[in-house]
Specification:
mainly alpha, Growth Hormone, Chain: A, 2 domains, MFS, MFS transporter, MFS_trans_sf, transmembrane, membrane
Length: 420
């Protein structure tokens, strides 16, 4: 646990993770809050609620790179304050907007959602050294798991006791407070030795959005496709067993196992490749379909949970390493978009598999999606390494040819002393 103590001892890190947890917990609950409002407040169908949720999710997916690019150019605090103002306007307006306008407003709110997740990841990259980063990103992944466990559950409990409109206001207030808190802290998004990265200009996308980065983004998409599908497969399995009331308990076990896995992985002395972790995640998910009641499903979810946070943390670490400092915001925004797209893709993909077969087919489809993304990521990563090695070889030859004339101009003894 020494690595975690070192990370939390960094100036501003503990307060950043605390404030960011508030914002991320509220953001993970926003879809549930809108669903509760539309179904219970407007007395409309779940399909109508799904339309608003889809609009919000699409906005978040498209807005990630846009906000990241704005952070690269304008700075973190400016972007945070602008998005906080928009979120305040949107959530205060939710109870008075007719459904048609709410649909468009939800897309705009998603497009300019407070970038708490990407801001935290950029700050972690800037505030930590290479040796501290894996533990820091493990804590960030654990933070994400806690937000998914707490956020929607709190909204459901509050919706049973309060007006759905009041719950929506509360979620909006928490998002705004979290974003304003991060803006007040104003953590650095570039390390001290990267302060002049913006002055050097933005490198063309083809220089950093190559095979290696595409591999990581593909694996991010595959990871959340798997996770979104697993949630649906859990519900389908328990519904077939007549135990759907236990779904929350199974999901809680899944989340706790993920938190434990993230903490264990961050304390390890050596990292594992992202494609290997994602491949293992896919492999342990497929046999979960053999469980037919809630106790065995809890057992099956422990294996999947233990690999979830480690996989997501290695994705974040890889993006931070591959992205140049001057475009890191855009790259992390692309990562957020890939994660959001995977969450949107997983449920319908696994839903089709369940409809065409049995609930166990949902786990199989989710696991195979993860395996396919891991294989694709592995192949693209190897391709990226294969391209890098010849370039390094050419650089070595150029350095050697530059040294030879200088060595020839020296005396034999001096030449020997100057040789590497």
């Amino acid at each position: 646990m020494t690595g975690y103590r070192q990370v939390l001892a960094l100036p501003g890190m503990a307060s950043l993770l605390g404030v960011s947890l508030l914002a991320r917990t509220a953001i993970t609950a926003d879809v549930m809050a809108l669903t509760m409002y539309i179904v219970l407040g407007l007395h409309m169908t779940y399909a109508a609620a799904g339309g608003v949720a889809a609009a919000l999710t699409a906005g978040v997916a498209l807005g990630g790179p846009l906000l990241g690019r704005m952070i690269d150019r304008r700075g973190l605090r400016t972007v945070l304050l602008a998005t906080v103002v928009l979120q305040v306007v949107f959530w205060l307006s939710v109870p008075i907007l007719p459904y048609g306008i709410l649909l468009g407003a939800a897309f705009a709110a998603g497009l300019l959602m407070v970038p708490a997740q990407s801001a935290t990841r950029q700050a972690i990259t800037a505030m930590t050294t290479a040796t501290q980063r894996r533990a820091a990103f493990a804590l960030e992944s654990v933070q994400g798991e806690l937000s998914y466990i707490v956020g929607p559950a709190v909204v459901i409990l509050c919706a049973a006791a309060l007006s759905p409109g009041v719950v929506a206001w509360g979620v909006g207030a928490a998002i705004a407070l979290g974003g304003a808190g991060i803006a007040l802290l104003n953590p650095p998004v570039r390390a001290a030795n990267e302060a002049d990265a913006g002055a050097a200009g933005r490198p063309p996308r083809r220089e950093w959005l190559g095979a290696g980065m595409i591999a990581v983004l593909t694996m991010a998409l595959g990871a959340t496709t798997l996770l979104s599908g697993v949630d649906l497969a859990i519900v389908a399995t328990l519904r077939a067993a007549g135990q759907v009331s236990w779904a929350a308990g199974v999901v809680a076990v899944f989340g706790v196992a993920s938190v434990a896995g993230g903490l264990i992985y961050g304390a390890l002395s050596r990292p594992l490749p992202t494609w290997l972790l994602l491949g293992l995640l896919g492999l342990v998910t497929i046999p979960a379909g053999l469980a037919h009641d809630w106790p065995w499903l809890c057992v099956a979810m422990v294996g999947t949970g233990l690999l979830t946070a480690p996989t997501l943390s290695t994705v974040a670490d890889a993006v931070s390493r591959l992205a140049p400092a001057s475009v890191r915001g855009e790259a992390i925004g692309l990562q957020s978009s890939a994660l959001s797209a995977g969450f949107a893709l997983g449920s319908p993909l696994v839903g089709v598999a369940i409809d065409l077969s049995v609930p166990a087919g949902g786990f199989a489809a989710a696991g195979l999606a993860g395996l396919a993304a891991a294989l694709t990521g592995c192949l693209l990563s190897r391709r990226s390494l294969a391209r890098t090695r010849p370039a390094l070889s050419d650089l070595g030859d150029a350095v050697a040819s530059d040294r030879e004339p200088r060595a020839a101009a020296l005396s034999p003894a001096a030449a020997r002393r100057s040789a590497p």
